[in-house]
Amino acid sequence: MSEIDVLISEVGPRDGLQSIDTIMPTEAKKAWIQAEAAAGVREIEVGSFVPPKLLPQLADTAEIVAYARTLPGLTVAALVPNFKGAENAIKAGAHKITLPLSVSETHSKANLRKTHDQVLDEVRKIVELLDTLPADQRPSFEGGLSTAFGCTLEGIVPEAKVAEMARKLLELGCDEVGLSDTTGYANPKQLRRLIKLIWSEVGHDKLTGVHLHNTRGLGLANALAALEEGITTLDSSLGGIGGCPFAPGASGNIVTEDLVFMLDAMGLRTGIDLDALLRVREVVTEALPDEDMYGFTPDAGLPKGYNAGGWGVAA
Amino acid sequence: MSEIDVLISEVGPRDGLQSIDTIMPTEAKKAWIQAEAAAGVREIEVGSFVPPKLLPQLADTAEIVAYARTLPGLTVAALVPNFKGAENAIKAGAHKITLPLSVSETHSKANLRKTHDQVLDEVRKIVELLDTLPADQRPSFEGGLSTAFGCTLEGIVPEAKVAEMARKLLELGCDEVGLSDTTGYANPKQLRRLIKLIWSEVGHDKLTGVHLHNTRGLGLANALAALEEGITTLDSSLGGIGGCPFAPGASGNIVTEDLVFMLDAMGLRTGIDLDALLRVREVVTEALPDEDMYGFTPDAGLPKGYNAGGWGVAA
Questions:
Q1: What are A131-178's pLDDT values in tens digits?
Q2: Where are the domains of chain B?
Q3: 3-class SS at B15?
Q4: Other CB atoms within 10 Å distance of the CB of residue A168
Q5: Residues of A in contact with B149 (CB under 8 A)
Q6: CB contact under 8 A, B311 and A185
Q7: d(CA A213, CA A15)
Q8: Interface A:B, Cβ pairs < 8 A
Q9: What is the nearest CA distance from A117 to chain B, expressed in angstroms?
């Protein structure tokens, strides 16, 4: 597989679908994931191992994980809220599991119904389980630092607290941590500062990805800042669907299509064929005809004479 | 007046209103401009001195300029397509006039119905006129390099051509040049490169501002790149209304409200009170009830605990 500069991790099938009421049929999810992988997307968060009672939209996650594993070259990621979810994700064969820890403890209690100590207990148990697995069956395990840039309930989240939680997650045995702008509060300066802080605390290799929202329109500006700082994995959602249903007003992932356009235009390789990616929208629209699909690039179309690999460099 | 880090030049009354069919009543324009100046906006492009036959929406520009001049501390800018327009702008008392020169000559012919040589002739005549004025009546004169990042008609616009046109405009006597992403084709890397190129050709003080569009969602990412490069003036439009009616698909200025939110959150001073700015939307909506007003920050609201002057720095 050809080399890439930036790994785009598509989170639409998880973060997108969990935040809309319509339940996408399992076959449509498979078609979506298949089409996106075929367009060159190398990592997809395909679902979340939460009780179906809480999120019936994602009740088929185990089946989706098993299917997605059959797609060549695709890293199959899943969210797990707790030990039980991790057990199920491992059973299903996820390549990567992410457990979100809300740095705002108020949000943690509202979102996961757990205090920090209770979340960290789950992490400890998950690592114990992972340690019993043979290396080739062990998924990578990320601790996602939610509300890292501020919280709709608490307001400002102290950066020292983010760093403390990062350290704890890694000490317990997470392979890496991620910074998550759950609430769409992040700005480029804050992002640069927080990335540097976390790196100084735990090392560059322990933080490679950020999960940004576009709630206040700063999604791509933040993505740019993260990239320029040295982040190499960016989460985004096809058509920008999705968000966090437990943080009111905090909807809206970065639109994958717009992100790929920006990276392409800057000459950064993602491995994704933008034309093919734009066609994937049809698969989603067909299955979810009543849902809005966002994206400036899809609306405006590509520039005249455009091709990926850097724009405007002709002298 | 307090010091600022970034000058936001509001272009809604010109770039916004010229691209919609509804004609905003003169009194409503005055109320809009008054309210925005009162919110702390220090420069507003209030209209364009084009023949009323072509843009009846802006037929009252002379009256608007005269009114805007009564607002304390406000720099009153106007677009002029040619010598005749500049004459009228000077008569009306504009503090700043901008003549757009499309670097894509195809676009120049379509937009201004003039070749490059013809546009440069107008520039020469305008400078001759300016040179006859006493210093305190002489507006500053900017040459706007339109389609600097690509053209909907020509595709890629060679960067050497942009630099050549910048040199010519300054040699003829423009006080400065601006880079204009008329078509919404710019990306952050290209923007950084082109700013550096122009600076290396004509000097830092001759290029301080960029006019960006959000056509493909990259508006704020581009604004961030320009700022970090050292640009200090950014054009934007309240509610994101506007665009270029002669470049199909190239609508959509940066939303002033989202831009101010980003700058505020980064601790960069604009002199603008964001709460007051958000209230200005009502003035526009009342006068143009059928027009869409855009903006992520207005939709989502401000973060909990937010105040301007840098977000998230608490340790």
A1: 999 999 999 999 999 999 999 999 999 999 999 999 999 999 999 999
A2: 7-300
A3: helix
A4: 18
A5: 312
A6: yes
A7: 11
A8: 173
A9: 21
**Distance (Å) from the alpha carbon of B36 to chain A's nearest alpha carbon:** 21
Which of B262, B227, B139, B143 lies closest to A185 in space, CA to CA?
B262
pTM (2 d.p.): 0.95
Per residue in A51-63, pLDDT (tens digit) is 999 999 999 999 9
Nearest CA in chain B to A251: B300
CA distance B301 to B266: 17
**Domain A7-300, CATH class in plain words:** alpha beta
| Closest residue in chain B to residue A306, using alpha carbons only | B155
Listing DSSP states for A115-156 in one string gives -HHHHHHHHHHHHHHHHTS-GGG--EEEEEEETTT-BTTTBS
Residue in A209, A155, A224, A165 with CA at minimum distance from that of residue A185:
A155
Dist. CA B148–CA A264, nearest whole Å: 19
User: Which residues of A are the active-site residues?
Assistant: 244
Helix H or strand E segment including B168? helix B159-172
Torsion of CA A213, A218, A224, A227, to 10 degrees: -30
* Placement of tokens 């001195």 in the chain: B49
* CA A227 vs CA A159, A198, B100, B198: distances in Å: 20, 15, 34, 25
How many whole angstroms separate alpha carbon B66 and alpha carbon B103? 31
Q: For residue A141, give the nearest of A198, A94, A211, A74 by alpha carbon.
A: A94
What are A30's two structure tokens?
Answer: 């498979």
Note the ipTM here. 0.94
